[in-house]
Each structure stands twice: as structure tokens, then as C-alpha cells.
Write a structure and sequence with these properties.
The protein is built from 7 helices and 10 strands. The protein is an alpha+beta fold and 272 residues long. It folds into 3 domains: 115 residues, FAD/NAD(P)-binding domain (3-Layer(bba) Sandwich), CATH 3.50.50.60; 83 residues, D-Amino Acid Oxidase, subunit A, domain 2 (D-Amino Acid Oxidase, Chain A, domain 2), CATH 3.30.9; 40 residues, no CATH class. The strands form 3 sheets. Strands 6-7-8-5-9 form a 5-stranded antiparallel beta sheet, covered by helices on one side. A hairpin with a 4-residue loop joins strand 1 and strand 2. The radius of gyration is 21 Å and the shape is globular.
């Protein structure tokens, strides 16, 4: 992420207009003022791309917290393929995964929403109980990451003079805090803000319409799939994979022909 941030910064023309080491402590939507740790500044359009927003800011915007899952991931020196592990006892509400992140480097992880008080030790144990990931239990752990990932969207993402984007606005039911979603939201927001500053639109609430046109159908499909998988039992998954094991289906991972076939067949078992 740091490389991406520097790339964006270096491509900007008016770098002098960027404030560093300013922490936003409050804002006044009526006066169009942002208060930072070093002063107050007027704004025309306020964009909140702050990751997980604090309760104070959410109350001011009158928006709720999105649903989230707790995720635990470990980086290892190994080679493997993109893999998704469905397991509704250990990873209900999300899944386990393997993602290649560099030469001889992978990330393995697990996300779940069925723990009241999640902690890293519990998730570490769950991670290495997952089928196919047990083999990595005694590998040296180069880096560990843990935290919450949003898996639903807030209903209100903009108003007259503000827009919420990225993880602050929520995440995708199947993918969580997708970088692709965040980039697309930033692009839509920039278009709306440009029109707003040129008086082509009277309010930033226009963002809601453009967001729905771009993401609406995909989010609806992901919610349907997520609900279906959450209702399934592990024996359903076992039957599906047994049924598919001799079929010539290309692709591995999450969003591909293999996964779509899994979902279709899981639906048959859940509804039967």
C-alpha cells in the first residue's frame, strides 16, 4: 500500500496543498469546517476515506457500523496457488485462503464472524485446523496481520456536502475490503465532486445514484451467495466437491467458474 500511496502522491501537481501530520479531530457540516490537531480549515466537499470510522464520526453523519468479520493472516516463505477454503465450523461468515504475494511468499488466512470475543490465539489455532493449511503450521511465520474487515455496506454513503468511501463505507459480502471497490468508489466520488464544484449538480448525494448503478447488482449477487454459504453445512461442501472432482472446470480461487459451480451445487443441497 505504501508504494501505491507514494505513486499517487508523486503524480499530483499541487503537492503544496496537501497537509501532512494533521489528525482530524472533528468537523462541522453546517459551517463546512474541518478541525485538525493543528488548526481549522474550510471545505466545500468532505470525503471520509478513513478505514473504520469512529463512533463519534458515525453519530455526526447518522450512519451505522457495517457488518464485519475478524481476520487473521500469516505470511510464509512458500509457493502455492490462490485457494479458498470453505468451512462453516471454523470460518463461518467468511473463509480461509491462500494468496501468493511475491516470489516464494504466500499469505494464508482465515476470517469468521462466529466468535463473541475474537483473539489472535484462537484464530491462530483455527487457521491451522483448516484442511490444506495444516501443512503450514510449523513453517516460520514471517509476518502476522489481524483485524476486522467489513462485509456489508452502510445504507447512507453521502449527503449534501460529504461522501464516505472505502472501508469506512463498508465492504463486499464475499470479498470484504476489496481494493478494487475502493478504487472504483474513489473514481465515482471524484466525478461527482468535480460536477459539484462546477455547479453541474447541487449536492454530493448524487454519489448514491452513481454508486448504485455501478455496484448495486454485484452487491446483491454477493449477498445472495453469502447467505447461501452461511446456511450450508460442511457435509454439503464435501458432497459438492465430490460431485465436481472429475469435471473439467477451469480456475481456482474465489471468483471463477469453479466457485460458481460450487455455489450452484451448494444451493441444491441447502434447498433439498
Amino acid at each position: 500500500m505504501e508504494d501505491i500511496e507514494w505513486h499517487v502522491f508523486n503524480s499530483l501537481k499541487n503537492k503544496n496543498n496537501i497537509l501532512f501530520e494533521h489528525n482530524v479531530v472533528d468537523f462541522d457540516l453546517n459551517a463546512n469546517v474541518v478541525k485538525t490537531s493543528k488548526g481549522e480549515f474550510k471545505f466545500k466537499a468532505l470525503v471520509l476515506a478513513t478505514g473504520v470510522l469512529g463512533v463519534k464520526f458515525r453519530d455526526k453523519l447518522e450512519i451505522s457500523h457495517p457488518k464485519s468479520v475478524f481476520c487473521y493472516a500469516v505470511e510464509l516463505n512458500a509457493n502455492d496457488e490462490i485457494t479458498t477454503i470453505l468451512h462453516n465450523d471454523l470460518a463461518k461468515g467468511f473463509y480461509g485462503w491462500i494468496i501468493p504475494i511475491g516470489e516464494n511468499r504466500i499469505e494464508i488466512g482465515i476470517g469468521a464472524n462466529n466468535l463473541q470475543n475474537p483473539n489472535q490465539k484462537e484464530f491462530h489455532n483455527r487457521l491451522f485446523k483448516l484442511p490444506y493449511l495444516r501443512k503450514y503450521k510449523f513453517h516460520k511465520h514471517e509476518r502476522i496481520n489481524a483485524g476486522y474487515i467489513p462485509t456489508s455496506m452502510i445504507e447512507k454513503k453521502s449527503n449534501h456536502n460529504w461522501i464516505v468511501i472505502g472501508d469506512a463505507a463498508g465492504g463486499e459480502p464475499m470479498l470484504g475490503g476489496s481494493i478494487h471497490k475502493c478504487i472504483d468508489e474513489a473514481s465515482i466520488a471524484s466525478e461527482v465532486i468535480s460536477d459539484f464544484l462546477k455547479y453541474k449538480v447541487s449536492s454530493l448525494s448524487e454519489y448514491e445514484k452513481k454508486w448504485e448503478a455501478h455496484f448495486g447488482e454485484e452487491m446483491k449477487n454477493q449477498k445472495t451467495v453469502r447467505s447461501l454459504l452461511d446456511k450450508a453445512k460442511n457435509e454439503h461442501f464435501d458432497k459438492v466437491f465430490k460431485k465436481l472432482q472429475n469435471q473439467p472446470i477451469d480456475g481456482k480461487g474465489l471468483i471463477n467458474d469453479l466457485f460458481r459451480n460450487i455455489v450452484i451445487n451448494v444451493k441444491e443441497h441447502v434447498e433439498s
